[in-house]
Amino acid sequence: MKKITLDIMIKGSAADIWKVISDIDGSVNVISGIEKVEVLERPESGLTGLKWRETRTMFGQSATEVMWITDSQENKGYSTRAESHGAIYTTRFDIREDDGVCLLTMTFGAELVKFSTRIVTLLTGWIFASATRKALMEDLEDIKKAVEAG
């Protein structure tokens, strides 16, 4: 599995960050790359099991994926999963707080499960990796702005 890990320092508490990153419904108002969010399944309590359809701009085009939260710990982080185009995509957010400043880490992974997807990735993967890294960093910057703006 290929992984990209990025960090950003945010002035605020773990609870402040959690409030922003766990508000999947409101993410369309925080993350500039997200065009639309439609919640498909909501758990009775907590975040684990939340499932939604997200439309965002990637590589200059709109793309829609169904995603769900596979694991969550309030004020600490959560993991998501999506399956599309011959790959399994995972994202993990981790929050570490130290004296009023937090480090938010995002780890994105892609496991290629179809042979044809592996071939295309061998030929063009470096282009997508660079664009993905840039898009993920923009997401983190948007989250930081939202948290620090209060």
Describe the protein.
By secondary structure, this protein is an alpha+beta fold. It has one domain (2-149): START domain (Alpha-D-Glucose-1,6-Bisphosphate, Chain A, domain 4). Helix content is 29%, strand content 47%. It has helices spanning 14-21, 115-149, and strands spanning 2-11, 34-41, 51-58, 61-73, 77-84, 87-98, 101-112. Strands 1-7-6-5-4-3-2 form a seven-stranded antiparallel sheet, with helices on one face. Helix 1 crosses helix 2 (115-149). The relative contact order is 0.23. Residues 116-120 have low confidence and may be disordered.
In one word, what is the shape?
globular
Number of extended strands: 7
Any idea how many domains? 1
Q: Bin the helical content.
A: 25-40%
* Number of continuous helical runs: 2
Question: How is this fold's topology laid out?
Answer:
Blueprint: E1 2-11, H1 14-21, E2 34-41, E3 51-58, E4 61-73, E5 77-84, E6 87-98, E7 101-112, H2 115-149
Antiparallel strand pairs: 1-7, 2-3, 3-4, 4-5, 5-6, 6-7
